[in-house]
Amino acid sequence: MEMNKMRSIGLTLLLSLGISSLIKAQKVDTLNAPAAVLPGVYADPNIAVFGKKFYLYPTTDGTEGWLSTSFTCWSSDNLVNWKNEGVILDLPRDLTWAKERAWAPTIAFKNGKYYYYYSANVNIGVGVSDKPTGPFTDPIQKPLIARGAKKGQMIDPMVFVDDDGSAYMYWGQGQCNVVKLNEDMVSCDTAKIVSFKPTGYNEGPFMIKRKGLYYLMWSEYDTRDPRYSIAYATSTSPIGPFKKATGYPVLKGKGVVKGAGHHSVVQVPGKDEWYIAYHRFKIPGGDGYNRETCISTMRFDAEGTILPVNVFEKLKPVKVK
User: Fold this and answer.
1) 225 catalytic, yes or no?
2) Considering 44, 138, 220, 292, which one is annotated as catalytic?
3) From the candidates 94, 138, 203, 292, which is the catalytic residue?
4) Which tens digit of pLDDT belongs to each residue from 203-214?
5) Could you give all domains of the chain from N- to C-terminal order, each with its CATH number?
6) Which of 35, 45, 162, 284 has the fewest C-beta atoms under 10 angstroms from its C-beta?
């Protein structure tokens, strides 16, 4: 009887130790985050894939008031190691209507050309090039969407090309705006702009489509706020109406990671594999003017819900086949 009792106690201790080890292994170390994917300070990253390469188009950070004057492009064949392709658009050199506040670009491919949309002095401009690495020229010599066209700031463009070739541009701080672009990709009917404000919406809209469902994502709070985070809503149409997902942010800082937001998403061609690029306060000592670019895996559950992104998960190399 004593022997059986001792065996029972021993088994209980082993089980307890096993469970304790499992909990410890699952506990996330929030004091040590993976390194940023780009050196220095870059924010608002737009990630894309063309051919067998990934590309990043960020805001150059590091000035109070975000007074950057040019845009760069970065390329990678594995998502982990990035090459600086240099300046692809310089506002003072290439534009006649804006000289500073070069923010939050995005890129789209259509008609055999690459179209680059960006914020410049709180207007939205468009550039065109034969290559994803630019350089980009200004085909219309004026803003595509001028400052003051709608409520809020005319910043943070994102262009989504649907399966039927229709292209939609989303933008706006304070409220979200969407309009279908004309076939030339450099004009639109401003009378057909649809404006709305999902609960919590602040800026940085981004659209993806998966299994017939449209996911409109955005940033909440202010980029200088450590609570900066990502939420989303879904629709069966690219212009809504959208139903906001509830329960938790898709992406949010924790521990040493603060101000995680203003994202973009890329799908690995031919696979149901998704990655989210975003910025966070530079580690250490960063703030809303000194942010760095990161990439994490983004996953869906069986019902199509976007699961919370683990900002402490180490990024593994990814190849496009």
Assistant:
1) no
2) 44
3) 203
4) 999 999 999 999
5) 41-298 (2.115.10.20)
6) 284
